[in-house]
Design a protein that fits this description.
about 35% helix, single chain, two-stranded antiparallel sheet, about 100 residues
Amino acid sequence: METLRERIKRLLIETEFPLSVDEIAFSLGLDPKDKNIIYEHLKHIAKTIRRESRGELMLYMIPPKCRNCGYIFKSLNKPKKPSKCPKCYSQRIDAPKFIIERV
């Protein structure tokens, strides 16, 4: 039986398009309220995926983007959805999307 982290990793390897945390939760039948757990797993997957695949695979993140002004959050230290835009203070933020692909 696979752990949640293994299921997330397999989903992100098999998908054709980058997925948001909401889409990951829906695909795996998880409660959408468990976003923080998924973000924590993504942080660990990012650290281990290259080592486990011997540098062949990498977790890519399409950064969050403000729907109001278009600001792109490029300098995130860990995967998460920001609460508001530092430029226009809007809370209309597109969530980051994730995919695992070959380097």
